[in-house]
Amino acid sequence: MTQTQKLAPLPEDWQRCLAVAAHPDDLEYGAASAIARWTAQGKEVVYLLITSGEAGISSMHPDQVGPLREGEEIRSAAAVGVDTVEFIHHKDGVIEYGPVLRRDIARAIRKHRPEVILAPNYHLTWGGSSFNFADHRAAGLATLDASQDAGNPWIFPELAEEGLDPWNGVKMVCICGSPQPTHAVDVTDSFDKGVASLEEHRVYLQNLPFEVNPDAMLRSHAESVGKQFGAPLAVSFQVFTL
Ligand SMILES: [Zn+2]
After folding, report:
1. What's the whole-model pTM score?
2. How many whole angstroms separate alpha carbon 35 and alpha carbon 177?
3. Pick the CATH number of 8-241 from 3.90.1150.10, 3.60.20.10, 3.40.50.150, 3.40.50.10320
4. Ligand 1 centre and the CA of 73: distance in Å?
5. Percent of the chain with pLDDT over 90
């Protein structure tokens, strides 16, 4: 998409969403404001965290950081109206794209039967020269593929043995933070909840090597997306329709 093309409104004629993230805090850099809007509309959103972000604080041991960041993510989800947060404990920093990860995500898709999936950014960058970490790339690609796998009875038949029937109801996979956005959501009224959700990552943010002002950081990005969308504040997604 070029700068001159306008972002389309993301369709909202659905009820259930599964938001997949590689780490606690990933959804809180924008997507959470859209999630707050959707839960206020009465939609159901479930979070699936592939890792607990246990390698995310260099001065603290992963055994201590994992539970701490799970707690931060659960409070962060609650701030935007999400009360189901599942952790599947792949290893932080070395998420491997492959059938094990695809199966674990497909299991959650079959269990929660979402019409919409939010997925991590699978691209090499966030735009320009800002490199995107391996975990996000692997998790994003696996989420896209799992959205298909979940509907096929012959891929991961062990899931049926767990009592989880195939689910073919996914209509859209929306990539968060994509450098190639196609759609956007007006978050003017839900933005403050999105900020509150990022603020819940207190210990993590305090231990970053740079200062983060959640309101200022999220606002400047939401204003810039808003200009391309025609709203004061907006969040963009790259949408794949199935
Ligand atoms: Zn991350």
Report:
1. 0.96
2. 14
3. 3.40.50.10320
4. 12
5. 95
